[in-house]
C-alpha cells in the first residue's frame, strides 16, 4: 500500500490542510475535526487509497484504514499537510466545540444523566414492585405482613433516588460543568432543604410561606424543588461558572475558604430568589406541552412520536428524554413517555428478528439474532446500526411498529413508575398495569416483524453470500522449501482461541457501526468478566494503542483486539499495556490489563471486539458464541 498516496487522497478529499481543525488516530481510524464539512468529498474519500470506510460521529470525521496501517497513513498525513498532530483529547475537545449549540446541549444532558441512571433504575424497579405488592395485598390476591422489616424498609428505599434526585443531578452536573461536585451536591441539598415546604404538598396544602427577596422587590414561595430537573442544572452551571472565575482571581492562601463560601452562598441565593421560580415555570410548561402532545385524541401524537423515536436514537437526541421522564414523574407520579420509547425499542428488535429468521446468509443471521435479543432488553444500537439501518427497510418497519405500539399505550393511558429501562424488563415499571404493557409491546413487535418479514429484505439479500472463487494456481514454479508451509496452511483450518474470559456475542452487540458492519473484517465480541487480554496464539505485535492490540499471528491470521467502544477517548486511562510493537509473544502471554469498573464509570462499554483484519484470505469464519474461558475455541477460519 502507498501510504503517501493515501495521505494525499485524504487531504484532497477533505478540502486541504486549511480545512483541518485537529487530527489524531486510534487503532483503526484516522480521526479528524473538519472546519467546513461542505468541502469534504465523501465519495472521493471512500474511494481513496486503502480506505475501508468513512463516517461521522461525535463531531469527528472518522476514516477507517485498519490496524497497523492507520498509524503509517497518519504519519504521512501530518507530514504531507504540515499539520500538527493532536492527542485524542485535543480532537475530542475540538469536536465538542465544533458541534452546534443543540448538539452540545444534547451531549451535555447525556453526560449528566447517564451516570445516575443506575440509581433511578433501582428506585423505579422497587417502586413498581411495591406498587404491585400493595395492589395484590389490597385486593386479596396476597396476604403480606406490611409491618415486617423487609416490607417497611423496601417501602423506605423505593423512592429514595427520586426524593433526593436534585442532589444526584447536582453532583453529576458539577462534574460535567467542571466544578467541585461536592459543592454541586450542596446546591442540590439547598433546593430540597427540610425548612422549605415539600413541593409535593403544594397541590393539597397550597403555598404556606412567601419570602420577600432583593430588599422586598418581590416575593417568592418558600417551596422545595423535589422532582425538578432543569432548575437544578441551571443553578449548578451558575455555581461552576462562579467557582471557576473565583479560582482565577482569589489569592491561593484565601482560595480554600473564600471560593466555596462565595460560590455556594451567591448561587444558593440566586437559585431560591430567581433561577428556581423562573425555570420551574419553564419546565412545567415543557412537561405540560409534551403531555398535551401525548394526549392528542385517538393517540395521534403518540403514534408520531413512537414512529420517530428510533430516528432520534440514530441522531443522539434520545439522551434528553430522561428529563422528560423525570419531569413527568415529578408532576404526575408516572411517566407516559417511557412506554412510547419501550414500544419503539421492542419494534426495532422484532424487525431485526425477522431479518435473522428470513435470511439464509449465516453471517447476517449470526449478527441479526443477538442484536434483536439485545433490543428486546432495551439496548437497540446493535439492531439499529448493525442490521436495520444497513438495509433501511427493516428500520422503517420497526418505526411503524413502534408507532402502533405507542398508539395503543396512549389510548389506554399507560404510564411507568420509573425510568431507565425499556423492553422486556420494562414491565417491572408497569406492574400496576402489566397486561396493557404486554399488549402494547406485542402490537409493536407484531407489526414490525410482519412488515420486516414481508418487505425488509430484497431477494438477493435473503440468499446466502457465496464465497469468492479461489484464485487459480500460477504456472510459475516455486522452490519446494517455500511451498511446503503454504500447502500445510491451506490444508488446515485455523483456530483462534479466546483472549479473554466472558460471554462471546456478535459484533453487532458492540453498538459500533464499524464493528457491527464488519468494515474492518469478520470477527466476534466478548463481554469480559475479567479485565485481562492474553495472546490467543504465537504472534508478533503489529500495533499497540493502549486500548487495542494488533497481532500478526504465526498461523497467518491478522487480528485486532479492541477493548471497549470509543475507549480511545480515555487517553490510556484504565489500561495497562504489557507489550510493545514488534515484540514476539506466545499464546497465553498477557497483552494488556484494564480496569472494567473504571471504564464503565467513565461512561464507556468494556465489550471487546476480536477482528480478523485479513478476513479476505479466508473462505468463511465460524464463530463460537456463549461463555468462554481464556484458551477456549472462539473462531474457526476456513480456507
Would you summarize the structure shown here?
The chain is an alpha+beta fold and 639 residues long.
Name its key features.
alpha+beta; eight-stranded antiparallel sheet; globular
What does this structure look like?
The chain has 639 residues and is α+β, with helices and mostly antiparallel strands. Helix content is 50%, strand content 15%. The chain has 24 helices and 20 strands. The strands form 5 sheets. An 8-stranded antiparallel sheet has the order 15-11-12-13-17-9-8-19, with no helix packed on it. A hairpin with a 4-residue loop joins strand 12 and strand 13 (558-563). Helix 19 (393-411) runs antiparallel to helix 20 (434-455). The longest helix has 43 residues, at 252-294. The protein is globular and about 80 Å long.
Task: Report the sheet-strand fraction.
Answer: 5-15%
Mean of the pLDDT scores?
Answer: 84
Output the structural class.
Answer: alpha+beta
CA-CA gap between termini: 24 Å
> What is the share of helical residues?
40-55%
Main beta sheet strand tally, sense and closure: 8 strands, antiparallel
- Helical stretch count? 24
Rg, Å, rounded: 28 Å
Q: Tally of extended strands? A: 20
Placed side by side, the strands forming the largest sheet appear as 15-11-12-13-17-9-8-19
Overall body shape: globular
Which spans of ≥5 residues are poorly predicted at pLDDT below 50? Answer: 466-491
Amino acid at each position: 500500500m502507498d501510504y503517501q498516496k493515501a495521505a494525499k487522497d485524504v487531504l484532497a478529499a477533505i478540502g486541504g490542510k486549511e480545512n483541518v481543525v485537529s487530527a489524531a488516530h486510534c487503532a483503526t481510524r484516522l480521526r479528524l475535526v473538519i472546519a467546513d464539512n461542505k468541502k469534504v468529498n465523501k465519495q472521493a474519500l471512500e474511494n481513496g487509497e486503502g480506505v475501508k470506510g468513512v463516517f461521522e460521529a461525535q463531531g469527528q470525521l472518522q476514516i477507517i484504514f485498519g490496524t497497523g496501517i492507520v498509524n503509517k497513513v497518519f504519519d504521512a498525513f501530518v507530514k504531507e499537510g504540515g499539520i500538527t498532530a493532536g492527542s485524542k483529547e485535543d480532537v475530542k475537545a475540538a469536536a465538542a466545540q465544533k458541534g452546534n449549540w443543540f448538539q452540545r446541549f444534547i451531549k451535555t444532558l447525556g453526560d449528566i444523566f447517564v451516570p445516575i441512571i443506575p440509581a433511578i433504575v433501582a428506585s423505579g424497579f422497587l417502586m413498581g414492585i411495591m406498587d404491585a405488592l400493595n395492589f395484590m395485598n389490597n385486593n386479596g390476591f396476597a396476604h403480606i405482613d406490611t409491618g415486617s422489616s423487609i416490607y417497611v424498609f423496601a417501602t423506605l428505599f423505593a423512592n429514595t433516588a427520586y426524593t433526593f434526585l436534585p442532589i444526584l443531578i447536582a453532583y453529576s452536573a458539577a462534574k460535567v460543568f467542571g466544578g467541585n461536585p461536592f459543592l454541586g451536591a450542596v446546591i442540590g441539598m439547598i433546593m430540597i432543604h427540610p425548612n422549605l415546604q415539600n413541593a409535593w404538598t403544594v397541590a393539597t396544602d397550597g403555598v404556606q410561606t412567601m419570602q420577600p427577596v432583593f430588599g422586598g422587590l418581590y416575593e417568592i414561595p418558600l417551596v422545595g424543588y423535589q422532582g425538578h430537573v432543569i432548575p437544578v442544572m441551571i443553578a449548578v452551571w451558575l455555581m461552576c461558572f462562579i467557582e471557576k472565575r473565583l479560582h482565577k482571581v482569589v489569592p491561593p492562601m484565601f482560595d480554600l475558604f473564600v471560593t466555596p463560601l462565595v460560590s455556594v452562598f451567591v448561587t444558593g441565593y440566586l437559585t431560591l430568589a430567581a433561577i428556581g421560580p423562573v425555570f420551574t415555570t419553564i419546565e412545567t410548561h415543557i412537561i405540560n406541552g409534551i403531555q398535551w402532545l401525548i394526549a392528542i385524541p385517538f393517540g395521534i401524537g403518540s403514534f408520531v412520536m413512537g414512529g420517530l423515536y428510533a430516528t432520534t436514537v440514530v441522531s443522539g437526541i434520545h439522551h434528553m428524554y430522561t428529563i422528560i421522564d423525570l419531569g413527568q414523574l415529578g408532576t404526575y407520579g408516572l411517566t407516559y413517555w417511557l412506554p412510547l420509547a419501550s414500544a419503539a425499542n421492542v419494534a426495532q428488535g422484532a424487525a431485526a428478528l425477522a431479518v435473522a429468521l428470513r435470511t439464509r446468509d449465516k453471517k447476517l443471521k449470526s449478527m441479526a439474532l443477538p442484536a434483536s435479543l439485545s433490543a428486546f432488553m432495551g439496548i437497540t444500537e446493535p439492531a439499529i446500526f448493525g442490521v436495520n439501518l444497513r438495509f433501511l427497510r427493516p428500520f422503517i418497519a420497526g418505526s411503524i411498529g413502534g408507532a402502533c405500539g405507542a398508539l395503543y399505550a396512549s389510548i389506554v393511558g399507560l404510564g411507568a413508575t420509573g425510568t431507565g429501562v425499556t423492553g422486556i424488563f420494562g414491565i417491572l415499571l408497569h406492574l400496576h398495569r402489566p397486561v396493557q404493557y404486554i399488549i402494547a409491546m406485542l402490537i409493536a413487535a407484531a407489526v414490525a416483524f410482519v412488515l420486516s418479514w414481508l418487505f425488509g429484505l430484497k431477494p438477493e439479500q435473503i440468499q446466502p453470500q457465496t464465497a469468492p472463487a479461489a484464485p487459480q494456481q500460477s504456472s510459475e514454479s516455486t522452490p519446494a522449501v517455500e511451498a511446503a508451509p503454504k500447502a500445510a496452511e491451506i490444508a488446515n483450518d485455523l483456530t483462534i482461541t479466546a483472549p479473554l474470559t466472558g460471554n462471546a456475542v456478535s459484533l453487532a452487540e458492540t453498538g459500533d457501526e464499524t464493528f457491527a458492519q464488519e468494515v474492518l473484517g469478520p470477527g466476534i465480541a466478548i463481554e469480559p468478566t475479567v479485565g485481562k487480554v492474553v495472546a490467543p496464539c504465537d504472534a508478533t505485535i503489529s500495533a499497540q494503542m493502549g486500548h487495542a492490540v494488533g497481532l500478526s499471528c504465526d498461523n497467518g491470521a491478522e487480528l485486532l483486539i479492541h477493548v471497549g467502544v470509543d475507549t480511545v477517548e480515555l487517553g490510556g486511562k484504565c489500561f495497562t499495556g504489557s507489550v510493545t510493537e514488534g515484540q514476539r509473544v506466545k499464546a497465553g502471554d498477557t497483552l494488556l490489563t484494564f480496569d472494567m469498573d473504571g471504564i464503565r464509570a467513565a461512561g464507556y462499554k468494556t465489550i471487546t471486539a476480536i477482528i480478523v483484519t485479513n478476513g479476505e484470505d479466508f473462505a468463511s469464519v465460524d464463530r463460537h458464541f456463549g461463555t468462554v474461558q481464556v484458551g477456549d475455541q472462539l473462531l474457526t477460519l476456513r480456507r
